[in-house]
Structure to design on (392 residues):
């Protein structure tokens, strides 16, 4: 009986250790951010976008009538997330909250791997669900909560020359099929995920991907393709080509997760650009988790009410004109990494944006009409219970 109890204790300890995360040398369990005396609005979403919560959303989910905007705190993955509040004082029926929400990805999956950089096939897609959960709470005693700050869109005086193009990213995340190599010893299963395990395009010798290319800007900046793949345990001779032009051949053996990046000539960029990967070894099977095409593109929205492009960190005095944007009554341009936004000026079917000083971080500028602000999948008020307080 003692041996059986000892066995149960050891197994429970093993399970508990798998729930740990080692981050910057510190062992975390994922609940360190929780204040068990507070209630939290659980917000579920499955799309990367700008989200809006109204005063009614808060009131209908149990927030106090006298809640102030300054007291609101939003959390995700253990960290506070910046929000914009239309009023830092007592909220009224016209008030609202905006925040940049991200679809779930493989960020937490990496703790399943011994060395995620070399083992995790797909850091871009979560292995369990696309739904990411945020938690909103209030604390009237709190100060300096994370905020998105509005900056002035100053279009007065002499403006700098407008930016003519940006490096557009056409991204494809592949999660059609799960792949994971078997253990080398029969009837053995590992407690951690193994190298190349995850979701991708499926294990096969030939993969072809197509990208729609529009509004190419004629410049010396070359287009580029990025690829992440994982292979089976065999000899590999993988050939990479774009529109029939061979870019490279990589030769290696056994299991491998690898990132590739290749620039190519502008003349090889087509309206439909095809990327083809061919395994030429005898049993040359591999799966692809990520492909992206980068190319110089004019600032044209093509009658869309959303437009996203990336700005470099520490950019200074940039002026943009976004043509053919389907503007709304109110429009926003969010710098999602530097936690700022401004309101573009509408001039006909064109948006005008002047950013005198950009943030320190390279960031997407997420331009959106008010009508396209998203609502979460669901919202529900929750309370947490600390397991340390449970009496068995």
């Amino acid at each position: 009986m003692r041996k059986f109890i000892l066995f149960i204790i050891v197994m429970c300890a093993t399970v508990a250790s798998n729930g740990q995360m080692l981050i910057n040398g510190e062992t975390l369990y994922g609940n360190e951010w929780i204040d068990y005396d507070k209630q939290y609005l659980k917000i579920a979403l499955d799309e990367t976008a700008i989200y809006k919560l109204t005063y009614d959303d808060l009131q209908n989910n149990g927030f106090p009538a006298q809640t102030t905007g300054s007291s609101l705190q939003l959390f995700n993955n253990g960290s506070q997330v910046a929000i914009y509040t239309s009023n830092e004082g007592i909220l009224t029926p016209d008030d609202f909250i905006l925040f940049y929400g991200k679809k779930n990805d493989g960020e937490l999956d990496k703790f399943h791997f011994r060395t995620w950089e070399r083992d995790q096939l797909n850091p871009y897609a979560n292995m369990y669900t696309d739904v990411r959960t945020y938690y909103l709470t209030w604390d009237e005693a709190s100060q300096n909560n994370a905020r998105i700050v509005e900056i002035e869109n100053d279009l007065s005086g002499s403006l700098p020359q407008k930016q003519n193009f940006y490096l557009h990213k056409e991204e494809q995340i592949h999660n059609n099929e799960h792949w994971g190599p078997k253990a080398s010893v029969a009837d053995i299963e590992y407690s951690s995920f193994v190298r190349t395990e995850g979701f991708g395009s499926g294990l096969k010798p030939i993969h072809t991907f197509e990208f729609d290319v529009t509004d190419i800007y004629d410049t010396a900046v070359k287009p580029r393709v990025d690829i992440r793949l994982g292979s089976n345990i065999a000899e590999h001779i993988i050939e990479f080509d774009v529109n029939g032009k061979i870019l490279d051949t990589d030769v290696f053996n056994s299991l491998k997760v690898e990132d590739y990046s290749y620039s190519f000539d502008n003349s090889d960029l087509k309206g439909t650009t095809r990327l083809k990967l061919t395994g030429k070894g005898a049993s040359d099977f591999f799966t692809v988790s990520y492909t992206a095409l980068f190319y110089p593109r004019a600032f044209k929205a093509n009658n869309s009410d959303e437009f996203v492009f990336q700005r470099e960190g520490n950019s200074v005095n940039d002026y943009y004109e976004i043509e053919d944007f389907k503007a709304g009554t109110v429009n926003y341009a969010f710098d999602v990494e530097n936690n700022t936004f401004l309101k573009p000026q509408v001039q006909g079917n064109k948006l005008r944006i002047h950013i005198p000083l950009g943030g320190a971080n390279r960031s997407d500028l997420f331009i959106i009409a008010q009508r396209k602000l998203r609502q979460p999948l669901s919202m529900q008020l929750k309370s947490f219970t600390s397991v340390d307080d449970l009496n068995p």
About this structure: The chain has three domains: 18-150+376-389, 167-296, 298-372.
